[in-house]
Amino acid sequence: MGFEGFSVGDYALVCDSLDEFVAQSELDVVAITSRIEECRKTISILKEDLSEKQRGIKDAQKRRKVLLSAMADGREVSLSDEEVAVISERKPPSGGDGESCFVLYNGIGRSYTIPLTIGRDIDNALVIPDPMVSRRHARLFFEGGYLFVEDVGSKNGLLVNGKRVPPGGRAIVCDGSVIQIGKSEFSVGGKDGGNIAEPKPSRENPAFFVSGGISSPISSAQTSIGRSSSCGIVIMDKSVSRKHATIIRVNGHYFLRDDGSSNGTFVNGHRVPSGKAAEIFSGDELMLGSVPATVR
């Protein structure tokens, strides 16, 4: 190709453009080289952290083998201050099968005999009416003086203190541990369960809702309660919402659900969260707004 039609000035413009490109590229090279050096330093730090973690894993695995061997042989092993602290922090309610454990579910504390089966089916000791809960979901049991929760083949799994339990796996449960199954959460405690309420001695299903000296039968699958005339049980009190709560019958179990009331729904002094339900039994004391009631 020839250069006819272009002047020396045109060539100079092209050369200037090339000079600018070279100068900018050299600056970019310096910047990239600096970033590479920074990355090398970061990689070096990460490698040190990785080595430290790997050493910690090896030390923990060796220590675990020592403790397992001592447990198998019945030997005593001195524990470090950190290991003693772990025991104090994580030791679960002591006991064995046949003993009771408090379970705080939807704000209501009750005592259950261990082992305790949990699921959606009516045959479970603790029934959770949640479509995300399997018919046979989990169980609580004692083993070696420790309380465990076990996934018994559920579809959606379970979490203990926010950590998922592997399918078919188990996890140690301590005082105050929070277990999540489906959309429901509950916590457990030993015999001295602190703020976990003592259970009512009667566990019979309710047949009547009693308030203000008036007994109303609980005969349908859902019995609405509120100030509205459309409710199955009408309570004309300003502290009661128009659609306050609903008594629900599920597989022979009865639950009281708060329907977003303004002044709350309470079972045995414990507030039922809005949109949630608490299982109720004959003799339980209820409060809708400021109106006391009971079920018999």
From TrEMBL:
It comes from Treponema saccharophilum DSM 2985. Transmembrane segments: none annotated. Residues 116-165, 223-272 form the FHA domain. Coiled coil: none annotated. SUPFAM superfamilies: SMAD/FHA domain. This is FHA domain containing protein. SMART domains: FHA. Pfam families: FHA.
